[in-house]
Amino acid sequence: xxxxxxxxxxxxxxxxxxxxxxxxxxxxxxxxxxxxxxxxxxxxxxxxxxxxxxxxxxxxxxxxxxxxxxxxxxxxxxxxxxxxxxxxxxxxxxxxxxxxxxxxxxxxxxxxxxxxxxxxxxxxxxxxxxxxxxxxxxxxxxxxxxxxxxxxxxxxxxxxxxxxxxxxxxxxxxxxxxxxxxxxxxxxxxxxxxxxxxxxxxxxxxxxxxxxxxxxxxxxxxxxxxxxxxxxxxxxxxxxxxxxxxxxxxxxxxxxxxxxxxxxxxxxxxxxxxxxxxxxxxxxxxxxxxxxxxxxxxxxxxxxxxxxxxxxxxxxxxxxxxxxxxxxxxxxxxxxxxxxxxxxxxxxxxxxxxxxxxxxxxxxxxxxxxxxxxxxxxxxxxxxxxxxxxxxxxxxxxxxxxxxxxxxxxxxxxxxxxxxxxxxxxxxxxxxxxxxxxxxxxxxxxxxxxxxxxxxxxxx
Length: 460
Fold this sequence. Notes:
- This protein is an all-alpha fold and about 450 residues long.
- Among the domains are: about 5-95, Rna Polymerase Sigma Factor, Chain: A, CATH 1.10.1740.10; about 100-215, no CATH class.
- The protein is about 70% helix and about 0% strand.
- The protein contains 24 helices and 2 strands.
- Strands 1-2 form a two-stranded antiparallel sheet.
- Strand 1 and strand 2 form a beta hairpin.
- Helix 12 (about 230-235) runs parallel beside helix 14 (about 265-280).
């Protein structure tokens, strides 16, 4: 659009813009954007705020240029608008009072607060974010903490830069309102910010931007290492389709770095084991991580159940069943015990017991409100039933899994299983079954196979 306007005076551009010539207005923006941005930076000492002021200045100019009385003074007019917007921004800052100190929680000093949130300043600066929705949290984390520009924010959230700015303004307004009204406890703040980072990691992962996903996971773990299973939540639906090795490696690197900083956090070890086993197919490293997690009283049942999954998937049916028996002796009941036992009996080739446990698992499938878990708890027993030729019940299980509204990638796998049943009647559904349980595992070493039988007795 710039070509036809080269050499045209500012006053003439202003007249044309007032008459509705969009190209003339764009040319004015191009000429004055740098000046306005530098002036705003001098006022506010914040590049993020200066960028917002620049965009707001030209948005107001577009609305008001039709009323400009002296087109030859368009430059001073634009600078006057920018000055007014800067003053409004400073007044808005001054209304934010935390611990007797005037401070804007949405300025670049957030980074310092993030590193020392336990201080008075850091705590009060970040508390404003803890009560927002996860989408608002993610948006503010991305733009205000990570310094990502509006155009990239728009790309990530698949909206225009203008829509991203509007969402950001709403999130900021909400943060400023709650900052003066609600004060969440200090313990809630790190987990709330971590949740925003997980939301961003998932968005980056969907765009196959592995480095950004890894950075967001690392920052979430640094804030709240006990939330590590959210990384597995980001990845688990991908087990139903071929997925990127780079993405899995990014998750593992983030978890490894988290373990270096928090080596005694059992949830980190459990999440590390799940990603290693179900997503990367690394059996021996996964078992080693599970042996660390199982020492935690809080997570012992969950870790033992995951260990039983691991043994069932590598064909160690006896050890898997012994692991589940240990859980029941210790009264560590989990509604997925029948499901895992069905897989173990399938690995052992014991049809009657596998079908019986699959039916028992289906009767318990609706006990968890998580859509992914409800669908998973129908799909896996359905795959066991299909494997042994119980086609009618398998079909009903697959249809119930779809009705549970699972992730799209899981829906595709379930539909493939239904299509296989329709095409072959009672033919085995074994390939679908192993997709339901995660990536095919690497062949365990002979030493691992010899030692696996003693693992449960040692844990008990």
